[in-house]
Structures are given as structure tokens and as C-alpha cells.
């Protein structure tokens, strides 16, 4: 984050003025495979600004996944509907976050020094740690959602919260750590490297509106919302300590892993509250 050209500062905003709707489209384009028309030259500055809408994109994904489940369960049993919905989700995102989860476990599990870990994380090949971690987290997602599928309201709520709040936690980590630079030979993916307080406010507000809406509609009680928030804040603290201990900061893969773990923790929390 030392490069001031990447900062979401007022001067940079003046130099690279785009509308908020364009930033929403950029966030959709960055996090999903949904085709959108970006009628401007995208820079790192724009991506930094678009990060404020990552939770909104998560809500969009949650809505699409919930809709797909509702369609599938009209013809198929819940377990198959959940499995097809998960497959649809991988298609929508291009397994973007799952790739980060795999790389983190391969790197942290197979490397001793920071340089070794980063080298392994850059490798496109799938290692034993990553393969095992991917299998486990997908299985936990599947089993959790199957348990929640006993109620259509419960599973839709879980999907919306999981997709939205997990991206709030992952994106917010940008404010708490330094980005770990990788050299030009890496398979570096574009990444937001700065999160302004205004962007954090919009990111958080999206999650708050979702939670308050669910409470207002009597879909969840306020105690459930408080428990989920508390669990996620604890998880966030653990993730910051873990990434700092392993790398001294974060990479794009770390944010992907944070999203995956946050999503699963939300599902497990709701299962525990059933």
C-alpha cells in the first residue's frame, strides 16, 4: 500500500472520475463471470473504489443462488438441489475465491519461509494441502446447507448472509494489513489494495441493511444477528493474526480464503442456532 497512485484519495478521484454505477459494474465484473459492459479504462484506482460494492455483489450472488435452489427443489430432493446450486455458484464466480483458499493452504502447509510460501501460492498446480482443504470446505458447505434446507426460509437466509457478510469480512482485511508484494513472474490476480473509510462504511452498511431487513421481516431475531456479528468479528481477528504470522500481510489469495472460511462459519453458526 506504499504506492500512492493506488490510493482512493480525493485527488485520484478527480483524475479518474467514474459514476457509482460504473463502480458497481466493475465490482460485478471483478468478482463474477457475469458479463457486463465496462465503458471506461479500468485502473487500480477504480478497483480500489469498487471494493465498496463487494458486499452488494455478494448479495446479488446470494439472490441468484437462492433463486436457483428454489427452481431445483421443485423437481429434485434437497441434497441434489444444494449440490446443483453449489455448481452454479462455481460457474458464476469462476471458483475465484475457492482458488485463493486452495493456494493459501498449499502455501502455508508446504512452505517454511515467506518466500517459499509465496512461491508455492503462485504455482498453478494443485498440491495435497490445497486439494484436501478444498474437499473439506466444499463438503462442509454442502452438509451445512442440506441441514438448513429443512426450511426454505432458513436456507435462503443462510445463502444471502453467507454470500454478503463473508465478502464484508474478506474486503475489510485490506484495512488491517499490508499487501505482500509478489514479483512479476507470479500468477498475480488484480486486487484492491486500499480501502477508504467511506468505502468501508458503504461495505458495512450493505451488511447492516441486510441484517435489519431480515429482523424487520421476522426472518431472524436480533439475537441471531448479534451472534453472527460476534462470531465474524472473532474470525476476522483470527484471520488477521494468521495472515500476519504466515506472510506479514495479505495477498489476493488470502482474501479469497477469508471469504470462503467466513461463508462456512456463517452456515455453521446458523446450523448451531437451529
Automatic annotation (TrEMBL):
GO BP terms: cobalamin biosynthetic process
Cofactors: Mg(2+)
Record keywords: Cell inner membrane, Cell membrane, Cobalamin biosynthesis, Magnesium, Membrane, Transferase, Transmembrane, Transmembrane helix
Catalysed reaction equations from the record: alpha-ribazole + adenosylcob(III)inamide-GDP = adenosylcob(III)alamin + GMP + H(+); alpha-ribazole 5'-phosphate + adenosylcob(III)inamide-GDP = adenosylcob(III)alamin 5'-phosphate + GMP + H(+)
InterPro entries from the UniProt entry: CobS
EC number: 2.7.8.26
Transmembrane segments: 20-41, 53-74, 80-96, 126-146, 152-170, 191-214, 220-239
GO CC term (a single one): plasma membrane
Top EC class of this enzyme: transferase
UniProt similarity note: Belongs to the CobS family.
Name used for this protein in its record: Adenosylcobinamide-GDP ribazoletransferase
Upper taxonomic lineage: Bacteria, Pseudomonadati, Pseudomonadota, Gammaproteobacteria, Alteromonadales
Gene name of the record: cobS
Amino acid at each position: 500500500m506504499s504506492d500512492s497512485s493506488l490510493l482512493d484519495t480525493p485527488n485520484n478521484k478527480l483524475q479518474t472520475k467514474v459514476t457509482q454505477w460504473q463502480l458497481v459494474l466493475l465490482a460485478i465484473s471483478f468478482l463474477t463471470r457475469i458479463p457486463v459492459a465496462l465503458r471506461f479504462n479500468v485502473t487500480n484506482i477504480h478497483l480500489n473504489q469498487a471494493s465498496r460494492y463487494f458486499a452488494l455483489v455478494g448479495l446479488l450472488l446470494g439472490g441468484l443462488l437462492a433463486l436457483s435452489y428454489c427452481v431445483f427443489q421443485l423437481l429434485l430432493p434437497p441434497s441434489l438441489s444444494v449440490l446443483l446450486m453449489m455448481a452454479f455458484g462455481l460457474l458464476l464466480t469462476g471458483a475465484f475465491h475457492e482458488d485463493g483458499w486452495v493456494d493459501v493452504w498449499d502455501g502455508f502447509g508446504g512452505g517454511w519461509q515467506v518466500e517459499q510460501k509465496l512461491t508455492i501460492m503462485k504455482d498453478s498446480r494443485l498440491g495435497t494441502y490445497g486439494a484436501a482443504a478444498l474437499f473439506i470446505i466444499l463438503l462442509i458447505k454442502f452438509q451445512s446447507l442440506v441441514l438448513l434446507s429443512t426450511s426454505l426460509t432458513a436456507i435462503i437466509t443462510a445463502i444471502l448472509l453467507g454470500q454478503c457478510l463473508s465478502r464484508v469480512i474478506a474486503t475489510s482485511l485490506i484495512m488491517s494489513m499490508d499487501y505482500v508484494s509478489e514479483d512479476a513472474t507470479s500468477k498475480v490476480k488484480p486486487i484492491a489494495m486500499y480501502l477508504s473509510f467511506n468505502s468501508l462504511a458503504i461495505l458495512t452498511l450493505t451488511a447492516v441493511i441486510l441484517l435489519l431487513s431480515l429482523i424487520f421481516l421476522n426472518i431472524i431475531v436480533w439475537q441471531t444477528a448479534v451472534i453472527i456479528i460476534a462470531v465474524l468479528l472473532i474470525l476476522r481477528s483470527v484471520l488477521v493474526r494468521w495472515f500476519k504470522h504466515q506472510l506479514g500481510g495479505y495477498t489476493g489469495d488470502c482474501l479469497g480464503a477469508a471469504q470462503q472460511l467466513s461463508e462456512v462459519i456463517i452456515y455453521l453458526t446458523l446450523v448451531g442456532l437451529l
